[in-house]
Amino acid sequence: MHTLSPDKWIDNYSDYLYNYAVVRVNNSDTAKDLVQETFFAGLRSAKNFEGKSTERTWLISILKRKIIDYYRKINSKKGQAEVRMSFYEDGENEGNWIEERVPQSWNSEAEKNIENEELKNQIDICIDNLPEKYAMVFRMKTIQEFETEEICKELDITPSNLWVIIHRARTQLRTCMEKNWFNK
C-alpha cells in the first residue's frame, strides 16, 4: 500500500509533471500553472488516494484531467488565444502524420526553420478551421495522445464516434493542407 508524501512532491515530481504538461500544451507558463493546480488538487483530494497506484501515477492522472479542463476552457470561449502545437520540435514522433510530404532537401538551416514555421502555422490554421468538436478530438487523440477511452468518457462519445470524428478531421486537414500548402 502506497502512502502520500506531499512534502516531497515538488522535489520528486515537479520536473516530470512539467515536462509531461509542456509537451501537451506547448506553453511553459501554462504547463507550470497546470502542475501547480495538480499539486493543489492532490492536496485537496489526498483523502481519496487509495494506494492502488504510485504517487506519480496518481498525480499524472490529476494532471491529465487538468489538461483536459484547460482545453475545454479554451475551446469553449471564442476569440481566446490560439493554442499552438509544435509539430517538429518536441520528440521524434511530432508531425509524423504529414512528415512524408515535407521536402527532404534543404539549402540551409535557416530556410528549413522558416519552412517548418510556415508549415506549422498552416497546420494550425487548418486545425482551427475544423468544426470545434473535430479539432478538440483531433488534438486530444493525435497531438496530446490521450487514450481513446479517456476521450470518450470526457466528451461523452462512443469509441466508434471518436474514430469517425478522427477520420473526418484527418480528411478535412488533408484537403486543407493540399489546397493551402502543397499546391501553392
Automatic annotation (TrEMBL):
The keyword Manganese does not apply. Residues 122-173 form the RNA polymerase sigma factor 70 region 4 type domain. One of its GO terms (molecular function) is sigma factor activity. Keywords: DNA-binding, Sigma factor, Transcription, Transcription regulation. Residues 10-73 form the RNA polymerase sigma-70 region domain. It holds the Pfam family Sigma70_r2. It comes from the Bacteria. InterPro entries: RNA_pol_sigma-70-like, RNA_pol_sigma-70_dom, RNA_pol_sigma70_r2, RNA_pol_sigma70_r4_t2, RNA_pol_sigma_r2, RNA_pol_sigma_r3/r4-like, WH-like_DNA-bd_sf. The keyword Transcription applies. GO terms for biological process: DNA-templated transcription initiation. Belongs to the sigma-70 factor family. ECF subfamily. This is RNA polymerase sigma-70 factor. It comes from Tenacibaculum jejuense.
